Amino acid sequence: MKIIEVKDYQQMSRLAACIISEKVRSQNRLNLGLATGETPKGTYNYLIKDFNHNGTSYEEVYTFNLDEYVPLSMDNPNSYRFYMNHFLFNHLDIPMSHTFLPLGNATDLENECVRYEKQIEDHGGIDLQLLGIGKNGHIGFNEPRTSFISKTHVVTLTSLTREANARFFERPEDVPKQAITVGIETIMKSKEILLLASGESKREAMNELLHGELSEDFPASILRLHPDVTVIADQTALKGIQVEGYSFTKC
Ligand code: GLP
After folding, report:
1. 122 classed as catalytic
2. Taking residues 233-251, what's their average pLDDT?
3. Which position among 117, 143, 208, 234 bears the catalytic label?
4. pLDDT tens track for 61-108
5. How far is the CA of 37 from the centre of ligand 1 (A)?
6. pLDDT value at position 248?
């Protein structure tokens, strides 16, 4: 794992956007794995700025999001589809037909999981996967003790995750209890992974990611076995944690 320590959230977001847009420009047809939550919003902002100023085109890009709340429909402002349209897709030249998320309101959820996993495979898999990290080490919505060999599946969210995400909802009880998430195996099949972490609330998770045990109790620990993972974290998230720094020259 390459660890890049940056000053703050803005620098983290700028560097992440630079790495992603560079990839979009250099690869003819790209499958991007995308994340939601607070962390990637800055990155998406910088991608939009780059699109406006440098004209980086997303016409040949396909996107696959990590997860979606059950049973939210795509027009629900709390759905991840709504978030992605609002914070990114509406501002780029990406055809909407190239953007994919699991359908949280599918009538047959098990079927939907199989369909989504196959959709990713049929498109040739993820080239670059963007990840955030939950305080308990979840990636996507793969909560602690999810099998490392899981594919896209339905999850019951932990109370910690529901509490952490309550800030996005009007009332805490509005946070859905379930979600569809791509599995850990699905994430590990990505050719390249970029994980972002910012702020004090992610410090414990960063310590565990870098120095804890490889265990299904901390899902993100599996990333240590992936051949191409870059972690961009800010000073606050890494404070007091021993890090073997890596300097990045491409951006
Ligand atoms: C959410 C999402 C994850 C995200 C994580 C961290 O529940 N399902 O994909 O990476 O939790 O969220 P945040 O960036 O808001 O801290």
Report:
1. no
2. 85
3. 143
4. 999 999 999 999 999 999 999 999 999 999 999 999 999 999 999 999
5. 4
6. 67
Is 136 an annotated catalytic residue? yes
Q: Indicate which residue's Cα is closest to atom 9 of ligand 1.
A: 140
Pocket test for ligand 1, best of 39, 153, 206, 231 (most atoms within 8 A of CB): 39
CA distances from 218 to 47, 181, 222, 232 (A): 30, 16, 8, 19
pTM above 0.70, yes or no: yes
Least confident of 144-148, 193-197, 243-247: 243-247
